[in-house]
Amino acid sequence: LARPAGAPAPVQRATPAADPPPAPTPQATVPTRRRVTHPAVIGSGLAAALVLGGIALWGMGRGAAESGAEPIARNTIAVLPFMDVGGSSDSAYFGEGLADEILNRLSAVDGLRVVARTSSFAARAATDDTRSIGQRLSVAYVLEGTVRRDGDRLRIGVQLVDADRGYRIWSSPPYEGELGDIFALQDEVANAVVAQLRDTVPSGLPTTRIATSVPTTNFEAYALLLRGREDLHRRDESSLRRSILLFQQAIELDRHYGQAYVELAKAYALLPTYSAEIQDEMFDQALTTLAKGIEEDPSLDPSTQVVKALIASARWDWIDAELAFRGALEHEPNDPDLLVWYSQFLAAVGRPAEAADCARRAYERDPLSPVATHRLSVASMWIDVDDDAARYADVAGELGMAPTPDAYIVLKFRQRDYAAARPLLIGVQTMFARPTAWVDPLLDGLAYSERRPQAVEALARAAQARDVPPKYLFGSWLYLGEPERAIDAGLRLVNDRPSFNVEFVFAREARELRRHPRFGELVRAIGLNRYWDKFGWPATCHRDTMTCD
């Protein structure tokens, strides 16, 4: 069993490192039901393919420090992945997992701003120079560490580096203990770091010691969780399926391991975005997993709120989603993934300014995350800061994220760069064996107002023949100034929620739609009126006429 939190770790002479236990091999089953890929899988705001290797391609000199931004705050720190020394070739997950656990503990300290895992780990992958890492992440301090396993023994070493000067300002004595002491050792390291920073942070840091609970006494289950998290963070189909296997195995070893249920549910909920799995089936499986987790560990409920919020939002259960997001943010106010998802939700319920603020917070916590950067680009579009939208879209691309078709088309249309949008529209049509005859007339009608009647006629013919994907038909009618037809298309589109990007309803392109007398029909079909009745109508919307400016 782990020592009580706060108990000193005995410092002992290190013994020669032995090879660690072999990595567990997934054996459990994983859902494999398939269907024909739906366009929504390609167009969803969460469905960009991440080229993980591309994260290392950004230039280290493009940080906030170089751009003339405000000075780096002294309460900022990045935790780099710990080096697993003396381990096997596939044991890097353990050092990364250990760093991630310490990062999470530090993130909960009031007054301390900790860069998220995606960015800090990507920074380490790109360079070993702590000064460059500090500049790129805009942090004052960098925490580095090593971990060595010798049989059932652990030895952890950490050092705190002043990122501006590249000087080591503190190096810990070795923290040593049994594998079962891992959680107490993590608390000790986090408390030691806070103690070192307490006098350097102008606003001060709390004196309350970090003391977390022991989530499992089965070290093999914990190791499986760490490996599963590593795959979960990769955000692609094969990695998500592999993470599901690993989390299932962790639960088999310790059925009371609450966090394993949360991670498993999250993997289920995300899988449809990156695969052809049926969304509602996977959502139901995620919720069943959470219910089982709470049954085994009643204290787990706050940790389940983020998955519940994600599912409720996708199902347009707006009120339940809002309540779950609030509960999740109270539990994890600085989680970048949570902030990205809440930003999407806020934009969908007609709160674009708050959505942009939320996206900004996610980006500040995770500046090298392609997902957070892309989200800031999209959220900037909804508040009409198109220069920022284009800039962050470019950065997200440099970080390895392919642009989502919907956002890319809106941005290129705003830039009147119809030639850039054309291959994407043609490609989507071709991929699903749909005719492309309507695409060029549409683009000509947008480029030249005198050709708009021909564009309307061509689109009407294509719509009659069902040659246009419903979401593109909805958007095309808006661009051509046909709000009545757009409402009809939107009302049909509500039957395919994954394809309906509700955020676009509140973009400037949809202004005439929102002012149309029939807009209330769409609002009621989406269910936004019930949400607004409970949480307040947007300042630009009018409850009596069910229209918005």
Mean pLDDT equals 86
Q: What spatial form do the alpha-carbon principal axes imply? A: elongated
Largest sheet properties: 7 strands, mixed
How big a fraction of the residues is strand?
5-15%
Polypeptide structure, described:
This protein is α/β, with parallel strands linked by helices and 549 residues long. Strands 1, 2, 3, 4, 5, 6 and 7 form a 7-stranded mixed β-sheet that branches. It has a two-stranded antiparallel sheet with strand order 8-9. Strand 4 and strand 5 form a beta hairpin. Helix 8 runs parallel beside helix 10, helix 12 runs antiparallel to helix 13 and helix 18 packs antiparallel against helix 19. The longest helix is centred in the middle third of the chain and has 18 residues. The N terminus is likely disordered.
